[in-house]
Amino acid sequence: MNRNTNFDILPDRYLFKEVSVRAANYQANHPNCRILRMGVGDVSRPLPSAIISAMHDAVEELAYSNTFRGYGPEEGYEWLRQAVIGY
User: Fold this and answer.
1) C-alpha–C-alpha distance, residues 48 and 83, integer Å
2) Exposed e or buried b for every residue in 14-46, given b needs 16+ CB within 10 A?
3) Which of 15, 31, 38, 43 has its CA 20 to 30 A from that of 55?
4) Which one, of 35, 30, 46, 50, lies nearest residue 3 by Cα?
5) DSSP assignment string, 47-68
6) What is the pTM of this model?
């Protein structure tokens, strides 16, 4: 895979560049790990039906006070983190 060199021209501490640098450093220090990249703006394909369904479910959840959660923790919901780890 080719690296997007446009990250190199972004100002210091710019979010995407920061993520790219951290991911590269982590990969260099953990060469046997596979990094699952969930990049912002990766819209080269239509959304899979599972994602569309999950988004519909999330909208329903946000529509009612008894299921509304607002922003989650900064590091993400534990259940979601565990699901990604399990994958």
Assistant:
1) 18
2) eeebeebeeeeeeeeeeeeeeeeeeeeeeeeee
3) 15
4) 35
5) PPHHHHHHHHHHHHHHTSTTT-
6) 0.39
